[in-house]
Design brief:
1 helix, 74 residues, mainly alpha
Length: 74
């Protein structure tokens, strides 16, 4: 058996193992990302529901218009 063929077989088997390991790792990364997204949504929803309503700024009322025009001869 030639050494080049032997090295090629080892590299091929190694690439298969690397491919499988990366595939499993990507699946776990996607699962963890989905779980993290659900946790962030839950925390955001709880913060929105439990927010303190007194912190909000009061609604501004429209300015009252004067009933007569200001005169300049005063």
């Amino acid at each position: 058996m030639d050494t080049t063929l032997l090295y090629s077989l080892f590299v091929g088997v190694g690439l298969i193992f690397v491919f499988l390991a990366v595939r499993i790792a990507v699946r776990w990364i996607v699962r963890l990302a989905i779980i993290a997204l659900f946790i962030l949504i839950a925390i955001g929803g709880a913060a929105w529901l439990l927010r303190d309503k007194s912190i909000r700024q009061p609604e501004s009322k429209p300015r009252a218009t004067p009933t007569r025009r200001a005169s300049i001869d005063r």
